[in-house]
Design brief:
alpha/beta; TIM Barrel; 8-stranded parallel sheet; two-stranded antiparallel ribbon; 11 helices; 41% helix; globular
Length: 329
C-alpha cells in the first residue's frame, strides 16, 4: 500500500494512503425499506456488481429501534448490520465489509465484540468496525439506554475492545466485586479488527487518535447541526480545519500509524439522479484527496434491482475508473 504525505504541508505526523477507495451502501436508506432488496439473492447481486465496478467495500448502517416519528420525518430503515454483512461476505470472496456505523452504546461491548469477531472470522478478516456515538434520543429510550451517558459508554467500549483484541481477554467484576477473566472467541483472523469512528466533534478526533485506525467525518449543513448534535461540515474548508486538528492531536500523541479518512462527497448531487454532475463530483474527489481523504462512501438508490445494478455500473465507469486513471498518470 502506497503511503504519502498530503501536499498541503510537510508537518504531518501521520500518513494516509494515496488511492481513494469507494464504499457502497446497501440501498435501504428509505422508509419503508424497498422490498426488492430484502433477500439474500438481491444483496448478492448488488455485492457482485459493486466488486465488478471497483468498489472496495459494502457498508450497512445500524438502527435497531428507529422511532416512528423519525422515520416519518425522513429517517430510514436498516438491516441488522452483522447479519446483512454476512450475506455480503458470502456473495463475494474479496470485497470489504463496513458497519457504517454502529452506535457503541447500543450494545454491551462484549456482545458487540462477539458479533464483530464472528463475522470477521467467517469472512476471512474483511470487517472494518465503523462506530459512533449516536444521536437519536428516541432510539436510546427504546433500548433503555441513557442518552446522557452515551459518551461515557462509548469511551468504556473502546477501552474494552482495545484490551480484548490487544490482550485476548478482559477482567470483569460483579456487584460483590468478585472478578473473573473473560475470553470471548473467535479471535479475529488479523488479531484485531480495524475501528473507524464517525463524527465531527473534537472529542471524536481524539478518540480516533487514541483508539482507532480511521475517521469518518460527515457532511453536515449548519442548519442541521443542532438536530444531529454534530458540528457543521459544509465543504473543503471545514474539513481542512478538522484534519489539521486531527494532525495536531496525532503529533501530540506521537502517533505514526496511518489514519484512514473516509468522507462522503456530495458535490455533483445524488449519483443515481439524472442531474448528477460527474465532472463536479470528480473534481471534488480530487480536492478532498489532496486534503488527506483516503476513501468515500456512496449511496445509490434504485426503484428495483435492475435500476440499482445499472447505477452501480454507471458510477464505476464514470467515476471510479476515471479517478483511478488520473492517479496512474
Amino acid at each position: 500500500m502506497t503511503v504519502w504525505t498530503p501536499a498541503h504541508g510537510p508537518d504531518v505526523s501521520f500518513a494516509v494512503v494515496a488511492e481513494v477507495r469507494f464504499g457502497l451502501g446497501l440501498p435501504v436508506g428509505t422508509h419503508p425499506m424497498p422490498p426488492w432488496i430484502q433477500s439474500a439473492e438481491a444483496i448478492a447481486a448488488v455485492t457482485k456488481a459493486a466488486a465488478d465496478s471497483g468498489f472496495d467495500h459494502i457498508f450497512v448502517t445500524d438502527h435497531p429501534a428507529p422511532p416512528r416519528r423519525w422515520l416519518e420525518a425522513g429517517g430510514h430503515d436498516a438491516f441488522d448490520p452483522f447479519v446483512a454483512l454476512t450475506a455480503v461476505a458470502l456473495a463475494d470472496p474479496g470485497i470489504g465489509l463496513l458497519t457504517n456505523l454502529v452506535p457503541l452504546a447500543y450494545r454491551h461491548p462484549l456482545i458487540l465484540a462477539k458479533a464483530a469477531a464472528s463475522l470477521d472470522a467467517l469472512a476471512g478478516g474483511r470487517l472494518t468496525l465503523g462506530v459512533g456515538v449516536g444521536y437519536l434520543r428516541g432510539e436510546f429510550a427504546a433500548l433503555d439506554i441513557s442518552f446522557d451517558e452515551r459518551n461515557e459508554r462509548v469511551d468504556a467500549a473502546l477501552r474494552t475492545l482495545g484490551r480484548l483484541w490487544g490482550e485476548g481477554s478482559v477482567e470483569v467484576h460483579d456487584r460483590a466485586d468478585r472478578s473473573d477473566e473473560v475470553v470471548p472467541l473467535p479471535v479475529p483472523p488479523r488479531g484485531s479488527i480495524p475501528i473507524w469512528i464517525g463524527g465531527n466533534a473534537a472529542r471524536t478526533r481524539q478518540r480516533v487518535v487514541d483508539h482507532a485506525q480511521g475517521w469518518m467525518p460527515m457532511p453536515n449543513p449548519a442548519a442541521f447541526a443542532p438536530t444531529v448534535r454534530s458540528p457543521a461540515l459544509e465543504g473543503p474548508a471545514d474539513l481542512a480545519a478538522m484534519l489539521q486538528d486531527l494532525r495536531r492531536r496525532a503529533d501530540r500523541a506521537e502517533r505514526t500509524e496511518p489514519i484512514e479518512v473516509v468522507f462522503v462527497v456530495r458535490e455533483g448531487g445524488a449519483p443515481a439522479s439524472p442531474e448528477f454532475e460527474t465532472d463536479e463530483h470528480l473534481d471534488a474527489l480530487v480536492t478532498y484527496a489532496d486534503l488527506g481523504v483516503t476513501g468515500t462512501n456512496v449511496t445509490l438508490d434504485g426503484r428495483d434491482l435492475h435500476e440499482m445494478l445499472d447505477g452501480v455500473a454507471r458510477y464505476g465507469a464514470t467515476v471510479i475508473e476515471p479517478l483511478q486513471r488520473r492517479g496512474e498518470r
